[in-house]
Design a protein that fits this description.
This protein is of the alpha+beta class. The protein contains eleven helices and 13 strands. The radius of gyration is 25 Å and the shape is elongated.
């Protein structure tokens, strides 16, 4: 593999982690990207570079040269870190890729509220074209994933001769842990009402966390193994280095990470209509002949697998077990702080 171009690698990292206003002094930021990187940052060890003796350290000078060369490259030739102007008007400032959805995904969500989905398929299939190679992956035959369901199958009585017989709770197994039949399938993150997909987590903790049990809930859990190799798109896998180091490649990476966030973003029950864009993307992926999708979990360190044909994942006999949820940790952020006199 060719060695990545240093200048475009650093530019890509700046675009991923920072808004243009952070490093453009015309908009209140640092004097330049280089001065931003001389302060504590998420890209390089600034203290080590600044501390090097001047006669042995061309680092900052070289870096400044790389970042200032070709400020507005063609979109397929390099990466720009300034929005620039069009027809004498200032373009919208560049936004940190990690914090914002791609404009193409934002436009899709808007259009899905005013147009039929089939009218938008061709144009968004073109958007997906550049994501296929970096995201394509295989879930190999026998790969194990887990499914959880709140509740249990039945209660068996303990020893009849015991003074205080302890009831034994038995977990759901097999079909009771699998995907529901189409008539019973409610709308999910990737499936529409009446369409049965199978969702599973890469670990026990992921599977249990994804169903959001409350403290005290009993949760049944089982293992499902792939019955054949499954061709999937894995949106959790690619980094920006898996795409061309150009503005066009960075747009493709931005869409990939935006779809991954969209698939894993927590949605409250009253906002299930927000699934519409993820369901649309899943339809297009299925139309391309893929068996499913991998994406990050927002409630654990693992990943989630959604397969379009539930029969490709088989319950493993003897794998069912029962868990009790002991506690749940909630984290909160204040979105609109009120004005407080005297603060």
């Amino acid at each position: 593999m060719d060695t990545p171009d240093l200048g475009n690698v650093v530019k890509a990292l700046i675009r991923i982690h920072y808004n243009e206003e952070d490093y453009n002094h015309h908009w209140g930021g640092h004097y330049s990207p280089t001065t931003l990187l001389m302060t504590p940052n998420e890209i390089i060890n600034a203290e080590r570079i600044v501390a090097e003796p001047a006669e042995t350290e061309p680092g900052l000078e070289l870096l400044d040269h790389e970042l200032s060369a070709v400020p507005y490259p063609d979109i397929d030739k390099g990466i720009g870190i300034y929005a620039g102007y069009s027809d004498g008007e200032q373009n919208m400032l560049l936004r940190a890729i990690r914090d914002w959805d791609a404009w193409s995904l934002i436009d899709l969500k808007r259009n899905l509220h005013k147009s039929n989905a089939h009218d938008l398929e061709d144009s968004f299939q073109e958007q997906l074209e550049g994501l296929i190679d970096p995201c394509e992956a295989v879930v190999t035959t026998g790969a194990s994933y887990y499914r959880a369901r709140i509740g249990y199958d039945r209660v068996e009585k303990g020893e009849l001769l015991a003074v205080n017989p302890t009831p034994r709770y038995m977990p759901f197994t097999d079909g009771d842990l699998g995907a529901p039949p189409p008539p019973l399938a409610s709308a999910g993150r990737l499936n529409r009402q009446g369409v049965s997909y199978l969702y599973a987590g890469s670990s026990r903790d992921t599977a249990i966390s994804e169903i959001r049990p409350h403290p005290g809930h009993l949760v049944s859990l089982g293992r499902f193994d792939a019955t054949r190799d499954l061709k999937v798109l894995d949106f959790s896998k690619p980094t920006f280095l898996d795409f061309p180091l150009t503005d066009l490649g960075l747009e493709q990476f931005e869409l990939t990470s935006s779809i991954d966030r969209d698939l894993s973003r927590p949605i409250t029950p009253e906002r299930r209509a927000a699934y519409i864009s993820a369901q649309f993307v899943a339809d297009l992926i299925r139309q391309r002949g893929f068996d499913g999708v991998l994406y990050r979990s927002s409630v654990s360190e693992g990943t989630n697998l959604c397969v379009f044909d539930p029969s490709t994942m088989s319950f493993m006999p003897g794998s069912a077990s029962l868990f009790r949820t002991r506690s749940v940790i909630y984290e909160h952020e204040e979105l609109m702080p009120p004005d407080r006199e005297g603060d």
